[in-house]
From TrEMBL:
PROSITE patterns: AA_TRNA_LIGASE_I. This is Tryptophan--tRNA ligase. Belongs to the class-I aminoacyl-tRNA synthetase family. One of its GO terms (molecular function) is tryptophan-tRNA ligase activity. ATP binds at K13, P14, S15, G21, N22, G149, I150, D151, I188, K197, M198, S199, K200, S201. It comes from Clostridium simiarum. A motif ('KMSKS' region) lies at residues 197-201. InterPro entries: aa-tRNA-synth_I_CS (IPR001412), aa-tRNA-synth_Ic (IPR002305), Trp-tRNA-ligase (IPR002306), Trp-tRNA-ligase_bac-type (IPR024109), Trp-tRNA_synthetase (IPR050203). Coiled coil: none annotated. Homodimer. Keywords: Aminoacyl-tRNA synthetase, ATP-binding, Cytoplasm, Ligase, Nucleotide-binding, Protein biosynthesis. Pfam families: tRNA-synt_1b.
Length: 332
């Protein structure tokens, strides 16, 4: 008998336009997982609305992310691509898990602590329960592995705690998921301040590259990237700007950082920046063209997300029914 493929779940939140960091840190790696694993890739729109979203922009970004998945090489027929809000089990399971989670553990999440500093008393309740919805996403599919960046590791740990607790209290129900950290999925830093993660929410747009940035904008942003006065291409924490550029090249080419460093012996930052810009443009340009085509073919996108939702719904509903039954809710 053929062995069951391991299950992978991951998602991207349509709260801002995606950056090169989202692409290299997540989506590009997912492409390599689709043969070996049974993958669910979701656009987590319900997570996006934990902060205010302009409805029209939210709709556009949700479809754009789905298009980026497909344009990057994730094959819809081989995976389950869907939009979170299309599968109501996510919201329902999230409530059930909320009732089995503690204020204390949610209050310890650093992402929540950071945001509550920013918003104070008027922080949305959704930001507090955000990791419970994420646990629901993962646990409904009994995911074995969850590819996440370092910043989401704490949320994943919490998903494990929630799963283990539920299994203990109500009898084994969920697979306890593991984080999946990809080999070349280095964290991409801000080009202007390499001590911070590359993020769309930074004030200075020169700090980030968007997946949909035109080639000339990409070249300009790379040429303005902050380096240092050392002038030698080294992979060290003392040269965070250069290290970040090397990480970008390394992720795009799938070549270890040390080999990249060797190839710049006797060369300077100008050559490095030129190659980084070239590699980003040649990686992103075909994806951008495909995304534009897909965004102009809403019928096709609709077909994909409807099929995805049907597939996801079938699996998620089975898990949700189990949860309801074990908790003591009367089946209809
Ligand atoms: N919270 C994740 C992020 O901000 C997105 C996300 C939501 C997610 N649900 C998930 C990631 C489930 C992995 C699995 O990046």
């Amino acid at each position: 008998m053929e062995e069951r493929k391991k299950i992978i779940f991951s998602g991207v939140k349509p709260s801002g336009d995606l950056t090169l960091g989202n692409y290299l840190g997540a989506i590009k790696n997912w492409v390599n997982l689709q043969e070996e694993y049974d993958c669910y890739f979701c656009v987590v729109d319900l997570h996006a609305i934990t902060v205010k979203q302009e409805p029209k922009e939210l709709r556009r970004r949700t479809l754009e992310i789905l298009s980026i998945y497909i344009a990057s090489g994730i094959v819809p027929e081989k995976n389950t691509l869907f939009i979170q809000s299309h599968v109501s089990a996510h919201s329902e399971a999230s409530w059930l898990l909320n009732c089995n989670s503690y204020m204390g553990e949610l209050g310890r999440m650093t992402q929540f602590k950071d945001k509550s500093q920013k918003y104070g008393e008027s922080i949305g309740a959704g930001l507090f329960t955000y990791p419970v919805l994420m646990a629901a996403d993962i646990l409904l599919y009994n995911a074995d592995l969850v590819p996440v960046g370092i910043d989401q590791k704490q949320h994943l740990e919490l998903s494990r705690d929630i799963a283990e607790r539920f299994n203990r209290v109500y009898s084994p129900t969920f697979t306890v998921p593991d984080a999946y950290i990809p080999t070349f999925g280095a964290k991409i830093m801000d080009l202007q301040d390499p001590s911070k993660k590359m993020s769309k929410s930074e004030e200075n747009p020169n700090g980030y590259i968007l997946i949909m940035d035109p080639p000339e904008v990409i070249r300009k942003k790379v040429s303005r990237a902050v380096t240092d006065s050392i002038g030698v291409v080294n992979y060290t924490d003392d040269q965070p700007g250069v290290k970040n550029l090397i990480n970008i090249l390394s992720s795009i080419k799938g070549v270890p950082a040390e080999d990249i460093v060797k190839s710049y012996e006797g060369l300077g930052y100008a050559e490095l920046k030129r190659d980084v810009a070239d590699s980003i443009v040649s990686e992103l340009e075909p994806i951008q063209n495909k995304v534009r085509d897909l965004m102009n073919d809403k019928t096709y996108l609709e077909e994909i997300y409807k099929k995805g939702a049907d597939k996801a719904n079938y699996v998620a509903m089975k898990t949700l029914r189990k949860m309801q039954k074990k908790i003591g809710l009367i089946p209809r």
